[in-house]
Amino acid sequence: MSSLEAIGAEHIRVTYTKVFGQVRLGRPGLDGEEDRAHLAGTLRGQLQLLLEDLEGRAGDFHGEIRATANHVATRTREALAVEEAAVARDPEQLHDMAVLARSLLELCRLPQLPAPATQTPVLRCLP
């Protein structure tokens, strides 16, 4: 069972949409410390599961998509290294985690792509 099946893509969408809708620079934050702490914990769990899924599909991506997946995976590991309580206190970090969750979700939903050809076919003219 994949992480998308385990937690549900819709649940992930609801979580990041709640953060996107309420955490903005210059706008009021989420309703209270408890709500922010809950979102920080939820996002952390989702990121861990989605990152595991993405790492399991490393061979499915090539070229720019692979570079993007590597970048998102690196940023996700950095975000997960931040203490959960610190994330809950910082709306910008909550927003960053929501962006990462959305990015991971979309990368995990990509179909397996064929590997690019390693050689360019040689065209020959017939005499």
List keywords for this structure.
127 residues; mainly alpha
Describe the structure.
The protein is mainly alpha-helical and 127 residues long. The protein is 69% helix and 0% strand. It has six helices and no strands. It has helices at 3-7, 9-22, 32-56, 63-81, 84-89, 91-109. Helix 2 (9-22) crosses helix 3, helix 3 (32-56) packs parallel to helix 6 and helix 4 (63-81) packs antiparallel against helix 6. The radius of gyration is 19 Å and the shape is elongated. The chain starts with a helix and ends in an 18-residue tail after the last helix.
SSE topology:
Elements: H1 3-7, H2 9-22, H3 32-56, H4 63-81, H5 84-89, H6 91-109
Helix pairs in contact: 2-3, 2-6, 3-4, 3-6, 4-6
Main beta sheet: strand number and arrangement? Answer: none
Unreliable stretches, pLDDT < 50, 5 or more residues?
none
Radius of gyration over all CA atoms, rounded: 19 Å
Q: What fraction, in percent, of the residue positions are helical?
A: 55-70%
Oligomer: single chain
The amount of beta strand, in percent, is under 5%
Query: Topology as H/E string?
Result: HHHHHH
Distance between the termini: 57 Å
| DSSP summary, beta strand count | 0
**Overall morphology:** elongated
Number of continuous helical runs? 6
Structure summary:
With 127 residues, this protein is mainly alpha-helical. Helix content is 69%, strand content 0%.
